[in-house]
Design a protein that fits this description.
The chain is of the alpha/beta class. Helix content is 48%, strand content 13%. Strands 3-2-1-4-5-6-7 form a 7-stranded parallel sheet, with helices on both faces. Strand 5, helix 5 and strand 6 form a beta-alpha-beta unit. Helix 1 packs across helix 8 and helix 3 runs parallel beside helix 4. It is globular, with a radius of gyration of 19 Å.
């Protein structure tokens, strides 16, 4: 059955690939992008040309007004919203100490608080419908092996993952399902590393260079070496499309695509099992699945 989908961060990377995969599957997809009349004008035009089912929409997750307006537009045009996909995010690279508190706040605002803004705009629609799916695009960094110089980004993705886990339980009795999609590290096929932010404190960066000279380049090179030739970032989009197309009640709580195998699949499996066992112990196991 065709779904009405709203996805954030759809101008490039996972978001753009996912929006196209969902449109190919016959869904009506609103591809959220910032500044579609300006810097993302070409991405918006490309989305329009790709499919009549792919509709670029202004969506800035750092703005309450923008998130509210985007949801009003979708609900107004379609009369419903079936799937919300949290994909917008930003990466930074460098020694953790060299990032100012303001930089960390800005990173958390995009990667974590942005999901809250979008939820507060969209969940009233899904709750009233007593139906829907929320997909969170996470990261294997939350529980896999993690290299240095990516700490602020990893911390933000871990915060988003924690939000997703709690939201899953709090939405289940409204008939709303949750899936966390966990991509591994990709050194090509997305713009994460290319467009990553850098620390503002140059003096601290210089101090770290005395002991860790060229470390970020080494991390990038070694991550690339771990990534097998058959790795395909488009498989993340395919995975999300499969989740959306799966019958309600049969969707996985968490699903991964990690060609480099950083260990997150193993750790997540244990953590999710313990989570489920604890909920059974406290008599809340009904929250593990959405109400039909």
């Amino acid at each position: 059955m065709s779904k009405v989908v709203l996805i954030s961060g759809a101008s490039s990377g996972f978001g753009a690939l996912t929006a196209r995969a969902l449109a190919d599957a016959g869904h009506t997809v609103y591809a959220g992008m910032r500044d579609i009349a300006g810097r993302n004008a070409s991405a918006a035009a490309g989305a329009k040309q790709y499919s009549a089912d792919l509709r670029p929409i202004e969506l800035d997750v750092s703005s309450d007004e923008s998130t509210q307006q985007a949801v009003r537009t979708v609900a107004g045009e379609q009369g419903r919203l079936d799937v919300l996909i949290h994909n917008a995010g930003h990466m930074v690279t460098g020694p953790a100490e060299a990032f100012t508190p303001e930089q960390l706040l800005d990173l958390y605002d995009t990667n974590v608080v942005g999901t809250q803004r979008l939820n507060r705009a969209a969940l009233p629609v899904l709750r009233e419908q007593r139906d829907g799916l929320v997909v969170w695009v996470g990261s294997s960094s939350t529980r896999g092996g993690t290299p240095p110089y990516l700490a602020p980004y990893f911390a933000a993705k871990a915060g988003m993952d924690a939000m997703a886990q709690s939201y899953a339980l709090e939405l289940a009795r409204f008939g709303i399902e949750t899936t966390i999609v966990v991509p591994g590290a990709f050194t090509h096929g997305t713009n994460h590393f290319l467009h990553s932010g850098t620390p503002a404190d140059a003096d601290v960066v210089a101090a770290y260079e005395t002991q860790y000279a060229g470390l970020m380049d080494q991390v990038g090179q070694r991550l690339a070496e771990l990534e097998p030739e058959w790795s395909d970032v488009a498989e993340v989009a395919t995975l999300i499309a499969e989740v959306v197309g799966t019958e309600k009640g049969k969707r996985p709580f968490r699903v991964s695509y990690d060609p480099s195998d950083d260990g997150a699949v193993v750790v997540n499996a244990v953590a999710d099992r313990i989570r489920a066992e604890f909920l059974r112990r406290v008599g809340l196991d009904d929250l593990l699945h959405p109400v039909a």
